Amino acid sequence: MIMESLSDLIAIPGGEYLLGSDDFYLEERPARQVRVEAFRIERTPVTNRQFAAFVAATGYQTVAERPPEPDHPAGSVVFVVPDHGVDLRGPPVWWRFVPGANWQHPKGPQVDLSGLWDHPVVQVAYDDALAYARWAGRSLPDEAQWEAAARGGLEGAAFAWGDEFTPSGKQMANTWQGSFPHQNLALDGYEATSPVEAFPPNGFGISDMIGNVWEWTRTLFGPSDQGNPCCGPPGNGPQLKVIKGGSHLCAPNYCQRYRPAARQGQASDTATSHMGFRCIA
To answer: Which of 227, 236, 218 is nearest to 262 (CA)?
Structure first.
């Protein structure tokens, strides 16, 4: 293992944390006090450079790189901007299966990682994130750990930095500005993923807990969980894991899940161009 490839760890104190929210989506309710033991979490999401070190050391092949069955191409799901407005209540037509899309080619074979080495790795399914974590001698956070870290010491605030989304007009995270999914104004400077630490860290000194990429947790999204997941294509696997934090595709007119309390279930077999992870110790 190449130790210098791993992210720095930030200590999160143990204690009672107010998690969840009564103000937004059903699956976030109720707001509740949860006891979380002290732990350490990586300062940034795992980057393409760090994931490449893992693959070089182990020869690991991600889910998106394996053909799911004979005569079926390997590939993954990519966000494609429609050329017109769409009915947001209908099928998510902005997702497309692209043969050859994987972590090394996040949008398809024509796009490599040039200029993206310090961006979060994407196109990783849950098993891929778990394999990296085990190689690194770490683990994936559960939902309570992730949310406690994301809040940065602020109890009950809507966002990781307070209750105002853009304080004094400042973009605090990589999210979607404009009318999703066809108009991306990129007021934050990025149309897709951004380099980790491109935006201010939260009160614990952790970067990118909000926006940029959704992040896997090890918590099951159970059959009793309510809500209507908005931000990922359906998968084939029976098991849903909670993902947290929202991504660069979360927009005010469609998916206001760029908040610590936000959560949704994602099929563990599914990789996309807006989903990554970070580890804990």
So the answer is: 227
Q: Is the dihedral of CA 170, 122, 247, 146 positive or negative?
A: negative
β-bridge pairing 240-244 and 75-79: unpaired
Task: Count CB neighbours of 131 within 10 A.
Answer: 19
Task: Supply angle C-alpha 106, 112, 115, rounded to 5.
Answer: 100
What gap in Å lies between CA 19 and CA 156, rounded to an integer?
Answer: 7
Domain count, the chain: 1
Which burial class, exposed, middle or buried, applies to 256 when counting CB atoms under 10 A from its CB (0-12, 13-18, 19+)? middle
Going residue by residue through the chain, which has 281 residues, state the pLDDT in tens, using 9 for 90 and above: 444 568 899 999 999 999 999 999 999 999 999 999 999 999 999 999 999 999 999 999 999 999 988 878 999 999 999 887 788 888 889 999 999 999 999 999 999 999 999 999 999 999 999 999 999 999 999 999 999 999 999 999 999 999 999 999 999 999 999 999 999 999 999 999 999 999 999 999 999 999 999 999 999 997 656 666 666 665 555 689 999 999 999 999 999 999 999 999 999 999 999 999 999 99
b/e sequence 229-253, b meaning 16+ C-beta within 10 Å: bbbbbebebeebbbbbbbbbbbbee
The vertex-87 CA angle with 85 and 91, nearest 5°, equals 115
Distances (CA, A) of 43 to 22, 55, 201, 206, 231: 28, 21, 9, 5, 24
CATH of residue 97 = 3.90.1580.10
Cα separation, 259 vs 106, in Å, equals 25
**Closest Cα to residue 107, out of 115, 97, 117?**
97
**Domain housing 58:** 1-281
Q: Would you say the C-alpha torsion 13, 280, 232, 105 has a positive or negative sign? A: positive
